[in-house]
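Recall the central idea of this unit: under ordinary conditions, the amino acid sequence of a chain determines the structure it adopts. In this exercise we apply that idea directly, starting from the sequence alone.
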Amino acid sequence: MRPTPKRLVKAVFLVSVFGFVALNISFLLRNGDDEEDADDEYQLPLERAGVNYSHRLNHQKHKDDEKHSLNIISHTNNLQWQLVNASRNVTGKAPLMKVGNRTDVRSVIWEINRQQTILNLDKFDLSSSDSTVVIVVQVHNRPEYIRHLISSLQKAKDIEKTLVIFSHDYFSEELNEIIAAIDFCPVMQIFYPYSMQLHPHEFPGQDPRDCPRDANRERAQELNCHNKDYPDKYGHYREAKYSQTKHHWFWKIGHAFDHLDVTKNYNGPVLFIEEDHYLVEDFLPVLHMMYRLRKKSVCFAMFADCETSY
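Accordingly, the structure predicted from this sequence is:
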């Protein structure tokens, strides 16, 4: 059979058709393999994600268990005071320190405040109970007054269930010896570190450049003294010996509530008194009656279902 132009065209057409079909079949087969590989590659991240999700669930469960344990510990701490540093001294005898200059006094005061030593823990238990009270006494430098106060405290009913904190703005060996002799309840001493004793010629003590108490505004401007623009509402200027009482009062409250480990979780009554007070023997039972009545009155006023029996 002799090739003609018509036959050649037909042959080229058939070869092209067969080539096109073969190419499509090859392409389809390759896509099928790629899809299987893609499925495998897609499944692997899912498996990893499942493992990670399971790990996160286990980790979250562990955190929940740990949080529950911490809640139990916190609840226990609310029932019993934290006596972290109280065990430093349980012999009932305070370390009496003899100091000389202001630098020594300042160092001793900061160390005492840091240690937070509680005396007489070998005799009395400080676990919180219905009859527990914290008494904070503001003390200056009147030994005879503090002796009478301590004498009245010793006669008080349930005094052994209280913690008495003496807050001093004057460091005195005589006062320290008086406090160290207390043997009828737990006792702690804290010291106001910004006293006139430690800062006699600078604020918060009496600075020589302070305005005279009775100087009027015009005279203060002429003297150009430090606090010339800040007289009190009566027109008088600050006297350090009186301002110290107020500064000490605010400091002892903040220190007692925010910086002492022993009162960190304590939610009971706190009584603030001063060294020139004298207490009757039943002041603690009466204080508890007042405390319960206050809670009952507050709950009644707020229409709240409060627990008032202790």
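Confidence is low (pLDDT under 50) at residues 35-57, 66-97.
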